[in-house]
Design a protein that fits this description.
alpha/beta, Glutaredoxin, two-stranded antiparallel sheet, five-stranded mixed sheet, single chain, 2 domains, 9 strands, 210 residues
């Protein structure tokens, strides 16, 4: 029996298995190279986040006191969002693995706090497989959250009282340093948002070690 066709078939199967693995490794390597290159750029400052206190997905008080001395990344979403929120939350989720050995914290503010109770936010967090020790989902008085978005983070926000009838909010993620200074804005709808954010976060981790 001729073994050549059998060996050829096995070889092709191995090639087909290896192609996606090699492609994934190549993409990860290219992201690493790009992050390393972007680390060299200067990270600006855009003002200070004032003190605040809200409630997290576990019904516990959570605010600036718990974030003191930490680098953190914030976004504004709501759980029933029909638009960009799933993408924003997915981008935030992508940050968990590369930052798992750091003390960087992730914060998601709900712009629909009346519906997004702690219990609802906890379910949303579980769907995202969010690490509860590193990613908090915050709710509280609407005025406090909207003031934070508009006045502190300088992000557009609307409560849905217009003709669309749904909350409107920014798609940007925001990087905050250990001193409470805003150091960068990253549009989650852009393909390179996570790469740029990781580069600047790594820059801050070197600039402001624990």
């Amino acid at each position: 029996m001729n073994q050549a066709p059998i060996r050829s078939g096995i070889a092709w199967k191995l090639i087909l298995v290896l192609i996606p693995i090699v492609t994934l490794l190549l993409l990860l390597w290219l992201r690493h190279i790009e992050v390393a290159a972007l680390r060299q750029r200067t990270v600006s400052s855009y003002g200070t986040v004032p003190a605040f206190q809200l409630v997290n997905q576990n019904g516990q008080p959570f605010g600036s006191a718990q974030l003191a001395g930490k680098i953190w990344v914030a976004d504004f979403i709501y759980t029933t969002c029909p638009g960009p929120c799933p993408m924003i939350s997915s981008r935030m989720s992508e940050l968990q693995k590369p930052l798992e050995k750091s003390d960087v914290h992730l914060i998601s503010f709900s712009v629909d706090p009346e519906k997004d109770t702690p219990q609802v936010l906890r379910g949303y967090a579980e769907k995202l497989q969010a690490d509860p020790a590193r990613w908090d989902f915050l709710t509280g008085p609407k005025s406090a959250i909207y003031n934070l978005s508009h006045d502190s983070f300088k992000l557009a926000v609307s409560d849905g009282s217009d003709e669309r009838g749904i909350p409107v909010h920014s798609t940007r993620m925001v990087l905050v340093d250990r001193r409470g200074q805003i150091r960068g804005y990253y549009d989650a709808t852009e393909a390179d948002a996570v790469t740029k954010l990781l580069a600047d976060t790594n820059h801050l981790l070197r600039e402001q070690p624990k």
